[in-house]
Amino acid sequence: MQRDGKVGRRGEQAGDRVGHEDHPPPGGRAFIVAASGVACLLRNDVGNIVAAPGGTEAVLGTVAEARAVVAAAVHPVPPAVHHATVRALTAEGSTFTSSLYRDAVAGRDGETEHLLGAFQTCAREHGVATPLLDLVLVQLRAAALAA
């Protein structure tokens, strides 16, 4: 996820991980990380999260972290994509969750390291603080150790 094209894990170039062929574009990556982060950290679907006091703020904080990492690493998330992400992740009554959350609840290995671990590494490389997403990663890693 670096602009300089450094080779990352598994020989991928940063651009390959974000917005190339089978990978989502930068705004899509921010959406996937934010959606996974929100669902896994708060252990619920979007509708229940935003119905709880403080839920919308937690969603917005997570979206902001994901957006900041993508902006630092690749390019800013287009405003329309950001607004669509916020709408989707703050929709009252929504039953939306992420596949990573569904895997975690079912006790299956998900894409924790591939998605969130790589995103955290990218955040560190670019000096972007991600306290909420860091908590998600700790929670998922701890759950994997307990399994």
TrEMBL record:
InterPro entries, alphabetized: 6-PGluconate_DH-like_C_sf, 6PGD_dom2, KPA_reductase
What superkingdom heads the lineage?
Bacteria
| Ranges annotated as biased composition (Basic and acidic residues) | 1-24
Q: Where is this region: Disordered?
A: 1-28
Where's the Ketopantoate reductase C-terminal domain? Answer: 32-142
Pfam families the record matches: ApbA_C
User: What is this protein identified as?
Assistant: Ketopantoate reductase C-terminal domain-containing protein
